[in-house]
Amino acid sequence: MIKFADRRELLLSITLVVGVAIASLISWEIVVWHFELPKALLPTPRQCFSAGVENREILFKGIISTGIASIAGLAVSVALGSLLAMLFSQSRKLRLALFPYMILLQTVPVVAVAPLLIIWSGYTFRTVVMVTVIVCLFPIVNGVTTGLLSMDRDVRDLFRLYKVGRLRTLRSLQLPSAVGHLVLSTKTSAALAVIGAIVAEFFVGNGTAYDGLGTLMTGWQALAKTDALIAALFCSALLGLALFGMVQLIAATILRRWVQP
Amino acid sequence: MIPLQKNGASITCTELTVRFSGGFEALSDVSLEVPPGEILSLVGPSGCGKTTLLRVLAGLQKPTRGEVKTQPSIEADKGQIAFVFQQPTLLPWRTTLKNVALPLELLCKGGHASQSRREREAIAEQRLRDVGLGHAMNLYPRELSGGMKMRVSIARALVTQPSVLLLDEPFAALDEVLRDQLGEMLLQLWSQQKFTAVMVTHNISEAVLLSHRIAVIQDGQRREVIENLLPWPRDEAIRTSSEFGELYRRVSRALRGSEAG
N or C: which end of chain B has fewer CB within 10 A? Predict the structure, then answer.
């Protein structure tokens, strides 16, 4: 139930966001009209919208494919990242030995890794998910490890006082303490997941039956269908927002109990 | 009705010395005896070693030299030693009742293992009633006031019916009225359970009202132990007596003397 003050804030927020969008679209339309830009270089918002409506079926299929790949990649990242974070939280030596490799994984450009993964895994959905995992994993590992290790000293002492074992401390104290960090890092990774999936589709989709948004974008770029390309770009942004919203909703449900309303 | 353990343990500290890795000596040859069922207050300027002494008594800090003995021999992992921290340290994802029942859940050894969840919650319920929070069992920490949180923290410490209760400035963060109320509540609980208590405080009035003896600590050393012969039971009225005022001045002089020294 949204309180009155929250509802007013929400309304204000929506009004401002919609206002900025309308102003941007009008400016865009004016720029194209004023400079008489060709459609292949920069179409008007109306032309992009028409292209989107025209290609709605193929775009919808693209959203579904990229969406499933993003969700799958994000889910694997959350599971694998949490598991790695739990290991890291239990041993300082393990953390010192392996954490630099996690950073390395994050710094390697995904466009360089994707062709390599195609060699190993083929032009498959699995490869798209793997690229998404590479993009999403580090924020989860980093966030959850921080959460698992950042317990209040007094609470930790309370568990030490009763000589509670490592596993029990992990289960009863560290994991619940880290939920907030897990949610925050999952939100960060949710936005990255769509980027990861689309970048992978730039490579995986070429010449195959795979029809993600990334595949459509490469195809339309080759055909100079800029209006459809921009329509796909908007779809990917909407997908990112939807994924972020989904994580937000799950988080709000889980965290409702212990976060100040 | 849950039976109460009415036998506090005696504590004997012999030549306790704690030296931290940087070479700083937090405690130097502190010897102290606390008879069973006594309340001892530790007073002294900030950084004088009071909390370190309390942590050594709890087994949270190993002394560099010296030892702590209890008679009869008691162990924290059997719930016989309890600690009340300066902050309530409640777990935000647990209800008040589950926070109070936490030590019973954590003590897998030492006689609490056979308790069912219902039994544990029945004991926790009783403790919450003891501290006047029978109505707040299903509330979460965020829904409690500062004073209520500290009551829950005390109920949690007493849920295992400890022989020794250690309190580290438990009322420091509360206002004067609440501090007095909780002090009186602590005395009531002590009169029922007769645990041995060691309490760190900066408040001379609190030390005089609640303790049998007051130990003045300065620079990691025990400077003076002052007998408190005020009659029991003690209540609000005793604060206005001339004996209370005299003892207050004596402790204050001892503290100023130790600060000057």
Answer: N
Asked if B91 and A260 come within 8 Å (Cβ–Cβ), the reply is: no
B92 CB neighbours in chain A (<8 A) are 257-258
Give the CATH number of domain A53-255: 1.10.3720.10
Pairing assessment for the beta strands B39-43 and B213-218 based on DSSP bridges: parallel
**Residue A74: which pLDDT band, with cuts at 50, 70 and 90?**
very high
Q: Which of residues 139-178 of B touch A (CB under 8 A)?
A: 140-142
| Domain identity same for B148 and B131 | yes
CA-based torsion, B80, B84, B85, B89: positive or negative: positive
Inter-chain residue contact A154 with B89, CB threshold 8 Å:
yes
Model confidence band, residue B117 (pLDDT cutoffs 50, 70, 90): confident
How many domains does one find in chain B? 2
Residue B156 lies in a domain: yes
Task: Indicate yes or no: CB of A176 within 8 angstroms of CB of B86.
Answer: no
Least CB-CB distance to A159: which of B55, B82, B106? B106
Report the percent of chain A where pLDDT is more than 70. 93
* Residue where a domain terminates, one of B162, B185, B217: B162
Q: Are residues B175 and B68 in the same domain?
A: yes
Instruction: Give the ipTM.
Output: 0.86
pLDDT digits (tens, 9 = 90+) for B147-167: 899 999 999 999 998 999 999
CATH number of the domain within which B195 lies = 3.40.50.300
Find the closest chain A residue to B79 by CA distance. A162
Count CA within 13 A, CB hemisphere, residue A53: 5
Q: Check whether residue B56 and residue B95 sit in a common domain.
A: no
Q: Measured between alpha carbons, how far is residue A231 from residues A46, A52, A115, A223, A237 in Å?
A: 10, 5, 26, 15, 10
Domain extent listing, chain A: 1-37, 53-255
- Residue contact A161–B81, C-beta within 8 A: yes
Position B174 scores a pLDDT of 81
Does pLDDT of A244 surpass 80? yes
A173 contact residues in B (CB cutoff 8 A) = 91
In 3D space, the residue among B186, B217, B185 whose CA is nearest the CA of residue B200 turns out to be B217
Say if residue B168 is in the same domain as residue B239.
Answer: yes
pLDDT value, residue B138: 92
Check if A164 contacts B (Cβ < 8 Å). Answer: yes
User: Coil, strand, or helix at residue B43?
Assistant: strand
Mean pLDDT for A5-14 is 83
Task: Find which of A80-84, B24-28, B68-72, B249-253 is predicted with most confidence, using mean pLDDT.
Answer: A80-84
Rounded-to-integer distance, Cα B48 and Cα B217, Å: 6
- Exposed, middle or buried: residue A41 (CB in 10 Å: 0-12, 13-18, 19+)? exposed
Report d(CA A38, CA A22) in Å as an integer.
22
Q: Which of B77, B82, B89 sits opposite A163 (nearest CB)?
A: B77
